[in-house]
Amino acid sequence: MKLFLSLFATAAILASCATSSSKNNAENDAETSGEWISLFDGETLDGWKAGENPSTFSVEDGAIKVAGPRAHLFYQGPVMNHDFKNFEFKARVMTTPGSNSGIYFHTAYQDEGWPSKGYEVQVNNSHTDWRRTGSLYGIDDVKEVHVQDNEWYTEHIIVRDKHIVVKINDLTVVDYIEPDSVAEVTDLNGRRISSGTFALQGHDPESVVYFKDIQVKPLD
Predict the structure, then answer these.
(1) pLDDT tens digits for range 153-186
(2) Is the domain covering 36-218 a CATH 3.90.226.10 domain?
(3) Domain residue spans in the chain?
(4) What is the pTM of this model?
(5) Of 147, 156, 104, which is closest to residue 126 (Cα–Cα)?
């Protein structure tokens, strides 16, 4: 009986390792072939790490719920070793009335404060901040409201070299090329094209926002 249990346990471990290896191989193949890769499993925050106030983030009904004090949830998982330069990023997003959030790219994990590196793409349909969903925050801002609160929409970010495109439900709202002179402007700090990871923003305790179907497609 003990031998049987030992053999069963060994088989289970080998099966688990094979599944993990198969998953890693599939991710590696997707990275090299430019396919869409999921960054969120719909059940846990595995692969993501919050700095301050981690309780701002939870998983609810297959989505990341953002609700609480200022916080940022950084992707720290294995895909591309969480370092993306050229890519397409998509997420399904739903805001609630008066909410503010954002999606950072080319950023890096930090313990607290607003991310000092990377660009922010705005998530805001009715907050007091006039910069609306799709804005490349403080760089190329959108005043129009293209989607409504309490409805799921797709936020699509495409970055290739210095060219940034933001689409909301297939509508292009930002088409921006970073000028070479940005590298010489010190007051922009880290707001420039480089490489890095993604982060979801918890803006304030009154803002409740949901993210799901978070995917990336690496580009050459």
Answers:
(1) 999 999 999 999 999 999 999 999 999 887 665 5
(2) no
(3) 1-33, 36-218
(4) 0.85
(5) 147
